Amino acid sequence: MRRETRQISVGNVKVGGGAPITVQSMTKTDTRDIRATIEEIRKLEDAGCDIVRLAVPDMEAAKALGHIRKQVGIPMVSDIHFDYNLALEAIDQGVDGMRINPGNIGSRARIKAVVDAVKERNIPIRIGVNSGSLEKDILKKYGSPTAEALAESALRHVQILEDMDFRDMKISVKSTDVMKMIESYRIIAERTDYPLHLGVTEAGTIKMGTIKSSVGIGTLLAEGIGDTIRVSLTGDPVEEVSVGIAILRSLGWRKNGIEIVSCPGCGRLEIDLMKLVREAELRIRNIDLPRPVKVAILGCVVNGPGEASEADIGVAGGRGKGMLYKDGRLIRSCKENQLVDELVKELEQFASID
Fold first, then answer.
1. What is the CATH number of the domain that holds 345?
2. For the chain, how many structural domains are there in total?
3. Is 2 inside any structural domain?
4. Which among 173, 213, 256, 337 could bridge 150 via Cys, Cβ 3.0 to 4.6 Å?
5. pLDDT in tens, 26-59
6. For residue range 58-80, what is the model confidence (pLDDT) as tens digits?
7. CB 301, CB 266: distance < 8 Å
8. pTM value?
9. How far from chain centre, in Å, is Cα 279?
10. Which H/E stretch holds residue 144?
């Protein structure tokens, strides 16, 4: 059972309060490069990204947000540190959400100016605490960025906004240490009812970052904690979205789309399984299905036919031939080099029927 939280709206996307768990990413382009940023956001949209965040390092970047906003479909969140003027400009440019820690933008008057502006436009704020940027007094108190230190820092920022009668927010407490990240979110989940944005910060390359994010985010989601997620990877942000969606599907939180299962391979293989799976992933990734479809790709003559028959659509191959299964029935055989074509045909029929 998921943790009960209040609900916020980031543009037209609901977060928390029982809404579907969303997948976020962050652009890697220079926000001042409007054309490149729009192109990257559109790729993220195509990949299934629900919300995108953009860095706003200076006023030029802030002023670019409006041009970008007009040409993309998904909600945009501005990521701002220290300068409240950038926050005010981002609001004027029409962003849908804001990542800002009120404690680091100066005086109470400056914080209030931002809070008044987001209230007027119904823009939510994400309190985003990272292990690498904790306040000096909190680090001194705990000696290191512990889970308790992360939670205390986040709650300090939350209190600032609550004192100004602002509660339209979500919280993240990210760490590069997976266990600290898990524990810090558990603490926040016990002490507040705000929706939580999950992530392992600076997780690393696609391989290691995927592992760390899957363990950290997956553990919390399995406990019912988490309302929106971001997988932080060094590389193409589209990969972040793909991994995020895969995490949700693996836990049953994302019901639509295509799930591929494939065997690991062994000495019994008589088919180029890795090539077959790679080709299938590329060919079916853009087929849009409104309900979940399980695709099994197997290369084993021992377990393959049985496992393929348990999927919505399955293929099992060997010795230059392949068998295609649908809804548990063998529907036809074909040559090995025709397997992916036949698989795509069947999936396209699923799409046209649904």
1. 3.30.413.10
2. 2
3. no
4. 173
5. 999 999 999 999 999 999 998 889 999 999 999 9
6. 999 999 999 999 999 999 999 99
7. no
8. 0.83
9. 24
10. none
